[in-house]
Q: What sequence folds into this?
């Protein structure tokens, strides 16, 4: 049983707001990387993201009556999409055979991907400011560990569900964030 979320912004609007916030933050950090106030802006961006993540994962939720977990890998995708026809049809680019069965679950998947994108670009920025070099695998492992920590805290506090899919999507989001950092900032080597 999932914990109940408090009423608020959800769905497509939330996804758009997250994308706009991340895009503006990333753009501001990119444009100011040679400015004397870049370090302060980076600290503000990291703190803002930390508060947003804390709110999204814990503070926006009510305590559930029961501990809740889902350990089936890719359960979310299986229950979001279905395939009309044979799987071989995808080999021939017949993607019209894929049906969206649960748009709300798709929104949850996208939000889980997006929530950890800032980890992927903010961690290497912080390391660079401190004169340290980090590798892509270190950033991805850090995102994975943070995601596992969040899921375990959600389980223990009953402020959410421990879901292995969330760990997968959060880690993928971290990898996307690091890829954006590498592609746009082009500072470190994998």
A:
């Amino acid at each position: 049983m999932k914990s109940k979320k408090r009423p608020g912004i959800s769905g497509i609007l939330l996804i758009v707001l997250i994308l706009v916030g991340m895009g503006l933050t990333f753009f501001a950090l990119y444009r100011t990387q040679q400015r004397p106030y870049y370090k302060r802006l980076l600290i503000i961006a990291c703190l803002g993201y930390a508060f947003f993540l804390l709110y999204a994962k814990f503070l926006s939720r009510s305590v559930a009556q029961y501990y809740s977990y889902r350990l089936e890998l890719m359960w979310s995708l299986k229950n979001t999409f279905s395939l009309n026809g044979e799987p071989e049809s995808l080999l021939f680019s017949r993607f019209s055979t894929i049906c969206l069965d649960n748009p709300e679950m798709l929104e949850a998947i996208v939000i889980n991907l997006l929530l950890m994108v800032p980890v992927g670009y903010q961690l290497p920025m912080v390391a660079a400011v401190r004169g340290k070099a980090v590798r892509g695998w270190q950033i991805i492992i850090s995102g994975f560990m943070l995601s596992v920590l969040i899921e375990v805290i959600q389980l223990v506090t009953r402020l959410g569900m421990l879901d292995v899919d969330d760990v997968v999507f959060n880690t993928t989001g971290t990898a996307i964030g690091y890829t954006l950092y590498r592609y746009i900032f082009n500072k470190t080597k994998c």
